[in-house]
Amino acid sequence: MGQTTSSTQHYPASSSSATCPVDHSTFARHQHPQASSSASASCPVDHASLAKHAQSSSAARCPVDHASSSKSSSTTAAQCPVQPETLDPRNNLPILTQSRAPSQTVDLPTDRTTSSIPRDTADNWEYPSPQQFYNALVRKGWETPENEIETMVHIHNFLNEKAWEEVQKWEAQVNQDEKLQLVRFKGRPGELSPKARFWLFAGWLLPERFNNEPPFDRHDWIVRRPSTGEEIRYVIDYYGAPPLPDGSPVFSLDVRPALDSLGSISMRVRAATRATWSSVAPEASHA
């Protein structure tokens, strides 16, 4: 499997609450309590159901069955509610509307925050607005208090920024001056990575030593090195952790290049060697 570095992040608790604003117990009620292969508190943006439609060879294939739709309508022509041009080809997700949801009772901001993550030479990625984030929850069928949406968006953005910092640390092994770009990504919360499966097995085998909770989300990021045009796939597993004494929620990110190229394998081997040596060296110095 190879040892990789992980980053533990905590999000500052707000003055109005001493608990994590992402209510994992609320999310868990919408999932099967015995499900071990899916996240117990996955990212509220519905990556899983949307990703199922992204697995075909067509990047903009409509998930609606036009044949059955045409049979059910005798007065009007069948029209796909998700038009191909509304799908973002970089992540194959529908472009979320800024319109207020029918059941919504509170106005939510529609302003979007620009991230620090470049998507090309000209622009950076933009995070969804609280209204778009809420619309994603509605699309998935989750009942989430509207007054928590803005905090959830802040945490979502915070974790992505930290994940990008970890990617930059990995890439500094290759070229510290590279102007990296995140060209596309895919959310895969229902799919455990091989490494996550390994640690789950270790937790089942030795629960007193290893964590036996699965990651609550997974992303695959495709990062481009503009100087060479090379694209590297990174796997990111998002884990929850016990909160700090002040109530600040804690998250652990396991960010590493996927083992699908010789260059990435070499990076992982070097990281594992450094980690092993750093743990052995102090013991050797006291021997």
Account of the protein in words:
The chain is of the alpha+beta class. The radius of gyration is 21 Å and the shape is globular. The protein is built from seven helices and nine strands, in the order βαααββββααβαβββα. Strand 4 (114-118) and strand 5 form a beta hairpin. It has helices at 24-28, 47-51, 66-72, 130-140, 149-171, 194-205, 262-285; strands spanning 6-10, 87-88, 93-94, 114-118, 124-126, 181-187, 217-225, 230-241, 250-257. The protein is 30% helix and 18% strand. The model is unreliable at 1-5 and 13-85 (pLDDT under 50). A five-stranded antiparallel β-sheet has the order 1-9-8-7-6. Helix 4 crosses helix 5.
Instruction: Note the beta-strand portion.
Output: 15-25%
Biggest β-sheet strands, sense, barrel? 5 strands, antiparallel
Oligomer: single chain
Task: Strand order, main sheet: write it out.
Answer: 1-9-8-7-6
Mean pLDDT: 75
Which residues form runs of ≥5 with pLDDT under 50?
1-5, 13-85
Helical proportion, percent range: 25-40%
String of helices and strands: EHHHEEEEHHEHEEEH
Overall morphology: globular
Number-wise, the strands total 9
Q: Helix segment count? A: 7
Q: How far do the termini sit from each other?
A: 30 Å
Rg computed from alpha carbons, rounded to a whole number of angstroms: 21 Å
